[in-house]
Amino acid sequence: MSEYEEIDLGNITTYSITNRLSKVNTADFTRPYQKGTSLNQFISNLPNILIGSDFKQLIAKIVHAYRAEKQIIAMMGAHVIKCGLSPLIIQLMEVGIIKCLALNGAGIIHDTEAANWGITSEDVADALNDGSFGMVKETVEFINSALEQGKHLKLGLGEAVGKKINESVATNKQYSILAAGYAHKIPVTVHVAIGTDILHQHPSTNGATAGELSHRDFKIFCSQVVHLTKGSIVLNFGSAVVLPEVFLKALTVARNLGHNAHGFITANFDMLRHYRPQVNVVQRPTQTGGKGYQFTGHHEIMIPLLVGGILEGIG
Prior knowledge:
Blueprint lengths: L38 H6 L5 H18 L4 E5 L2 H4 L3 H9 L5 E5 H13 L6 H6 L7 H17 L3 H11 L9 H7 L4 E4 L15 H19 L7 E5 L4 H15 L8 E6 L4 H9 L7 E6 L2 H16 L1
Parallel strand pairs: 1-2, 1-4, 2-3, 4-5, 5-6
């Protein structure tokens, strides 16, 4: 027998499970998969638990925002393009879901290369060894030419590149988000951090021009953020630093100027959870109302599911 005293459990108070508040109910479980199930039914059958419930809620809120003609803004890192998802983003633009799209500087590089040559994304690790990383000439010549024309026409950076692709003989321009934005008069803004893109390694790049056009895009983006109201949508696909920071500044500009940019819905989609999207997209902008969602998973799976659910929802 142990020399230590044991607690007496004989007087423990218990209660019935029927009186307990339980967070999981079998009514929220998924249904067995049936061969031939539609995408709409597949998403509907996701568990009404945790992220499964959040995913269905977000789709419903985007569909409602679309039908109510609310502002819907998407922000996107370049990895989404590299994952082959441009056709889906363009589809959301064409049907009127995405009303404004913000990219980082790398976005125009991959978009331009896909449109003109049908290829993009070099092997960085291999090219870095001999100093050839980012030293292709055609990409830089095309974009810098577009920026010079854009400066003359007083365009934003995204509009300038989109105009050039749209008016060029690019054989794959149907894959260009920038060209689609220009063609459908949807603002595609580009927010450049000098030194982060391969363009900045080349002597033909004019930092003053890039800065001027990107700052114009920031002001264009701010003019879209002012339209955020209760029930509007802001989506961030894979930008871990630049666009969450840009969004927070644009939002404070809108509120500083007296616009009622409160009560909207935000969602962040990325392969990992990062600090800035969590606080600058999901948490801080919605602390005065609305709701923020966080979804973690590979873009090439999550974004097609989201787009499919939205398009099924709007009929």
